[in-house]
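#lab-general

N.A. 3:47 PM
ok so I finally got the sequence cleaned up, no stray characters, all 158 residues accounted for. can someone with queue access submit it? mine expired

B.Y. 3:52 PM
send it over

N.A. 3:53 PM
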Amino acid sequence: MVEEILTRFPTSIRLAALAIVLAVLIGVPIGILAAVKQYSIMDVISTSFAMFFASMPGFWFGLLSIIIFSLKLGWLPSNGIDTWVHYILPICTLSLPAMAAILRLTRTTMLETIRQDYVRTARAKGQIERKVIFRHALKNALLPVITYCGVEFGLLTW
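B.Y. 4:20 PM
back already:
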């Protein structure tokens, strides 16, 4: 039994790592944009997207993805890991709930950080808004996101 687990463990690690990378690459920038443009149409759409995918069970989304993209449309293979195309469906299935959670967490922590005194001070000193967001606010806002990504990576390799 241990041999079976060990033969499949590298694939699980690869899928989990790629899913987390995709979730971070999409979730963090959209979360930052949603926080900076609070109450805009971008904020409403991204928050709705995040709530939808965070509340959807992963097994149901995986089965639905297989039915739609493999069986009905024939775009993606439903099993195997022979080529990079075989990784698309599992990585997207694993990353969407994580992406939704990362988006929500990034937005929340950025909103909290943007309202801090040191960010207001940086703006009062005449810093460019982009510099204030990325140099001052983002550093502190990403700490919970990094922690979440570590926990999520552990859960994905489970």
